[in-house]
Amino acid sequence: MALLGSAISGEVGLRLLLSPLGTNVIIRTACCTVGIALPVYNTFKAIEKKDLVQQKKWLVYWAAFGTFSLVEIFSDRILSWCPMYYHIKFAFLVWLQLPSVDGAKILYERHIRPFLLRHQARLDQVADATYRELAKFANSHQGEIQFARSVIMKILASANQMIWGILHPTSPIQGQKAVGGSPAAPASATENGHKAVGDTPAAPASSTGNHDSAE
Fold first, then answer.
1. Which of 95, 137, 202, 207 could potentially form a cystine with 103 if both were Cys, beta carbons 3.0 to 4.6 Å apart?
2. What is the pLDDT of residues 113-128, one digit of tens each?
3. 149-194: per-residue pLDDT in tens?
4. Where is this region: Disordered (predicted)?
5. Domain range holding 47?
6. Is residue 198 domain-resident?
């Protein structure tokens, strides 16, 4: 029974992935999960365990994935018109990570590394110039950066309060107690007032009775 259920779920999953129409959301989510979410978690584990082999493996993967993302920025509008483009992208991202193939290592050693070694001097100059310009921009716009930072912190604090209110709502019983408990004091004061008013005429009545007895 369990084997039949796994076979049915696997068949449904393949049909959803391979369906060319109406599944762009599913296949894009699958690409983000396989291409980003899982590698981030595996990179985290490699760093925490101080596994140098795994750290090198995922560094190579991120180099390959970053190169692919740069190419995709300029070619996405053209390639997205191709049928089954996101399915091919999904298969490529799986190929990059498969231990039996290790596509990221193949792509890095055969294409990325030779290209970067040939143009390393020029790329170093471009990177240094870019970092210098970024440092100048940050130094000349300290006020704007501090203002933007304060605004972002306020937005995050407001969002945190909203999330806390959603996750920990006030119970209706406590709310009714809080609403009903506040007017209790005026009601008690009114009752005391009525008692005071009722007690005041008692003194003349008593004095009249004493007057009659005296006669």
1. 95
2. 999 999 999 999 999 9
3. 899 999 999 988 888 888 887 655 555 554 454 544 444 444 444 4
4. 175-215
5. 18-100
6. no
